[in-house]
Amino acid sequence: ASSAGAPSIRRLSQEVVNRIAAGEVVHRPANAVKEMLENSLDAGATNITITAKGGGLKFLQIQDNGHGIRKEDMGIVCERFTTSKLREFGDLNSIQTYGFRGEALASISHVARLTITTMTRDGPCAFKASYLDGAPVPAGPGGSPGPQPCAGVPGTQITVEDVFYNMPTRLRAFRSPSEEYNRIIEVVTRYAVHCGDRGVAFTCRKHGSSSPDVHSPASKDRRAVVRHLYGAALAKELLDVSGGPGLKPGAAATGPCGSSAGEGAAGSATAAATSDAGDAAAEGTPFAFSGLVSNANYSMKRRVFILFINGRLVDCPPIRKAVEAVFSDYLPKGTHPWVYLRLDLPGDAVDVNVHPTKREVHFLGEDEVVEAVASRVADVLMGANASRSFFAQT
Ligand code: ADP
Ligand code: MG
């Protein structure tokens, strides 16, 4: 082409398309961990163990005791847009699982070597298959690419090796395996807190290490789980918060893993009666929130702000800033509270499909919700503080 002419447009090869898309879903090992954790939770697992080597860049393994994958599905499980969870676009508004796009395993298989060993509860044995670029590959030289029978226990084990082996630039950008490992720990810890009321045990350790770095029991008492994860010093300073007008029964909130409108609404029914947030939002988007926050006695250097909206781990800077602003009246400058909040909204108020990593969630009535959460936190903090000074005086 002459330098003055328009460049010709060519179609990218499917391989390039897939690798680019995969790189958007899996930025770093912690993204892969989140996707695989969610798959385990979707599979009904009550025990999830993560093992990492080299910050997850060399080796990452996740073992669960969920329902497993049928042998017949093992051929397509790593193809893009293959899922057992979503059938119709309209189902997105009522999706009850973390996954729905069938993109995670496919993406991982385009940037790493992936091996699945899985056994269903009624299966005769476990089956194992390795994958590259969305398709099964022979396990060894001369081997067949199909699932191979092997010994195992019901559940699924997924091994991810040499992530970004085919994206050298990205691989070089990772400075420190320990930073990547810390991000993995952060993801696992957040899910452990969120699932802390439904009896799911989480363990995360470095490969070859006998002492886990995250270990939470299969408890249904979230305070007990927080004590295991963060220690007694925080656990004894926690306050309950809840509020919001509640969700109408039947107006199903979306959300995986037991996050249901019923639960949210029931939990907040009393809060709504006593908090003025109820009236303010009466004609707006119905919502319910609940959680645990540290009291004015406790502060930490590192920020821990764990937010799940409709069961999904998300970022919502307006909520975070409003809550932190409430605490700034009480805490030393430069320190942070510890906050865990779950917020439930009607499924059709939230667009879960905004971003490939599903990190960002937009919803209707954001201002009302921010205001209601912040004012409830302020009430709870003030109440706790007032009763403490009252006791201190007597
Ligand atoms: P999605 O979660 O969006 O369906 P994924 O690529 O994450 O897509 O997973 C594809 C499919 O593989 C899932 O729909 C599920 O059927 C199956 N799967 C993945 N991980 C597990 C697991 N740990 N246990 C059981 N099934 C799994
Ligand atoms: Mg998934």
From TrEMBL:
Q: Does the keyword DNA repair apply?
A: yes
Q: Name one GO molecular function term.
A: ATP-dependent DNA damage sensor activity
Task: Give any single GO term for biological process.
Answer: mismatch repair
A GO cellular component annotated for this chain's UniProt record is: MutLalpha complex
Give the keywords, sorted: DNA damage, DNA repair, Nucleus
Per UniProt, residues of the DNA mismatch repair protein S5 domain are 226-382
Give the subcellular location: Nucleus
Keyword Cell wall biogenesis/degradation in the entry? The reply is no
For this chain, the family text in UniProt reads: Belongs to the DNA mismatch repair MutL/HexB family.
Name of protein = DNA mismatch repair protein S5 domain-containing protein
